[in-house]
Amino acid sequence: YRHFPQISRALQRGRMAMFSIPIMLATFAFSQLATRVSADPLADAVVEWVVSKGGFFSDKIEIRNMDPQDSDSPFGVFAVQDIDPKERLIEVPHSCYIALREDEDFENYWENVCRLSHQLASEMKLGKNSTHEPYVDYIQGQKRGQLPATWSNAGKDALRSMIRPGSDILDWIDRHFKGSCFEENDKLHEHIVAITIQRGYDTALIPIWDMVNHWNGRVNTENDSVFEGDRLQVRASVAIQKGEEIFASYNECTDCGDVAWEWGTPEILRDFGFVEPYRQRWIFPDNEIWFELVPNDNRHHNDSSEELALQWDDDDDYDVSSDDIYWGAPG
Q1: Could you tell me the CATH superfamily of domain 18-328?
Q2: Range 54-65 average pLDDT
């Protein structure tokens, strides 16, 4: 999900603490990029449907496998021609969203997710009678078990040995949804909740935009608020060359508020099921510190064998190797 609370920045420098994080966690290889597992025809049908509703999808981009030679590789959005800065890429009318009604009272975040998941479940039950049938078909094509909270017990145990105590990466469904939003043993609705978190924007699910992958080191798009006007508008923020992938940020976005200061790499794993490429942000609110890991020479690369820079803020860079990292918050 893209969580948009209006929170103040609570993470500050100053409190001394010593920690160690094995670099293996920073490059935890269950997946390295956002996973799109839909069949190509389903994605194409969504695009055609959105365009038929007054939307727009540039003929300079396409949805395809990251590895064109591997039909099992994840999907992404790619440039098929050179694209100029500010060029229009995608427009999605609000009428194409699966969203809570504007006249509904918005509750707390978890309650909104629950209500949106039930709305998605209702659209699924409608089947061909759904006004959003192509998008619902696409969503139903997503594999189960992508988020850590829905992994097998063995998978959860493996990750639990590496995450910080108190982390909700594995337990948020149990804490906030089971027994309240859906029955304890309702595996279908558990999957629907996971999909709502993974692909949703607080109170809305947005077709096509949820197919654009995340990489904070290579964001090349800009957009207006997903809730402004009558449509989402996405443009190129820089020149994009033919063959390059189109990227957005899931936690440093127009509607994200200050969430980037409390929501980093572990939270991306929690809510999307992948470990983001560098640049990575690691946040420890209990100790009031955060830091970023970025490749030292070329900050766009995701090669875990190269030297990394441990970046505390705009003024301080600390060089570290790709072995275990030990650090102390500067006083």
Answers
A1: set domain protein methyltransferase, domain 1 (3.90.1410.10)
A2: 96
